[in-house]
Write the structure tokens for this entry.
Amino acid sequence: MTRAYKYPIFVKMTRQGDESYPDVSLLNTKAVPPPKGKRPWGGKNPPKGHYNCNLEKYSACFAFGYTGWIRIIDTPVINRARLKNYELLAVILWELTFNGWSEEQCNDSVQLLQQKLDEAKREIKSGKCAVLPKKGNKGFDIVIPNSVRDRLKTLES
């Protein structure tokens, strides 16, 4: 017997422009609002006046795409989209398979993505990157690893 995943599957309608479509995610039922008066910081040890926005407790929903299929079999579904059962099944299946039609293909996609992220981190650490300064007092510097910049250049030509 399998156990339900710790986050229920959450399906709601989302609007983008004139289009409305079902959106599938995992709902964090233990999420708390971020500290009042503090700004988000995308990393460990945030400076004074900021909070680590990457902490699980501040995220109301999580992406569903790379979740292992066996982990969600007995997981409850919250159907805020008011879809019929067959429509609900279709959008959940679509979300599970958008990175590949099988769980193995999705896992291969995750591994490739992780390799690219690791390569980008190594480049940034060794200074092989371009740094675009932030505009004004707010925001963050934008760091682009050379491999990403080179890939973008090949796509332009």
User: Anything to note?
Assistant: The beta strands are 9-16, 19-27, 39-41, 50-52, 61-62, 77-79, 129-132, 142-145. The chain has a mean pLDDT of 87. The longest helix spans residues 103-125. The two ends are 53 Å apart (CA to CA).
